[in-house]
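Researcher: For the annotation table, I need structure tokens for Germin-like protein. Please keep the output clean. Sequence:
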Amino acid sequence: MLLCLVHLHLNGLGLSIAQLDLALSGVIPMHTHPGASELPLVVQGSVITAFISSVNKFYLKKLKRGDLMVFPQGLLHFQINSKGRKAISFASFCSPNPGLQITDFVLFANNLHSTLAEKATFLDTATVKKLKVVLGATS
């Protein structure tokens, strides 16, 4: 669970920074920033980070205090707290408006008809309906 997200725009500098506080076993789910690359720096705890390249290769790294990783613009990535205590990191973005698309919400928390979601994701009817209910979809 993500405890806290503070996002600061640095007016006129073309940058933004977010503080990410991850609870025990906390997860920042698979997502992308269509408008910027991300550079997370862990300042407390330990975080498992990964992104998927445009040729579907996973790049996985366990970050400890002082470590950082680059998530290239537009690529899917996630973060998981890997220790038994709260983890804190700061994510810098090369844009004041990096955007955010959380994959599960993009696919299932919308008004896309379930039959189209099934075809687009290769999931069965029951799974799509369950995900839509859990994520608050309108159809």
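Researcher: And a one-line annotation?
Model: The domain at 2-99 is CATH 2.60.120.10 (Jelly Rolls).
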